[in-house]
Design brief:
Layout: E1 2-10, E2 18-23, E3 45-46, H1 49-59, E4 63-67, H2 75-87, E5 91-95, H3 100-105, H4 109-117, E6 120-123, E7 144-147
Parallel strand pairs: 2-4, 4-5, 5-6
Antiparallel strand pairs: 1-2, 1-3, 6-7
Helix pairs in contact: 1-2, 2-4
Length: 151
């Protein structure tokens, strides 16, 4: 999986203490993007999903947040990562510039697997005119925090 960086002990990318994985590559190019260095799909480095899961298990935090960049640019690796996180019984949040409806319309087995297994999707492009610093866990008010796992 092409990964820009891994951040440990985050308290701002979802509830509790989390490991945050920033994936490389983003096609959305939102004006005002907080992380334009993430746009290059060849940025960062290749890290195997197995190695990421080993680090997550060793870190032992409450949850895992997968952000970017655009995580769904690597759907198969993302699906395997989310699956492995759930085996480790982690709470999993996934950030995306796509809307939930756009992801569902892809009818892709790996995208569907992520939507079936992740706990929360934070969806939608960053819209600068709708930026609101008072929002928790999202940058602009069009973005939604969607609880995928009803349990
Ligand atoms: S989706 Fe996120 S990473 Fe991609 S351009 Fe928009 S704000 Fe930046």
């Amino acid at each position: 999986m092409r990964v820009l960086s891994v951040l440990e002990e985050s308290v701002v990318d979802g509830p509790g203490i989390r490991t945050v994985i920033f994936t490389a590559g983003c096609p959305h190019r939102c004006p005002g993007c907080h992380n334009p260095e993430s746009w290059n799909p060849r940025g960062g480095e290749d890290v195997s999903v197995a190695d990421l899961l080993a680090q997550i298990e060793q870190s032992g935090w409450d949850g895992v947040t997968i952000s970017g960049g655009e995580p769904f640019l690597q759907p198969e690796e993302l699906a395997r990562l989310v699956d492995g996180c759930k085996v480790l019984q982690k709470n999993v949040w996934v950030y995306t510039g796509y809307t939930l409806e756009q992801l569902q319309a892809m009818h892709d087995e790996f995208v569907t697997s992520v939507l079936d297994r992740a706990d929360v999707l934070v969806d939608g492009r960053f819209e600068q005119p709708l930026m609101d610093r008072s929002l928790r866990f999202r940058g602009s008010s069009n973005q939604r925090i969607i609880f995928l796992n009803k349990a």
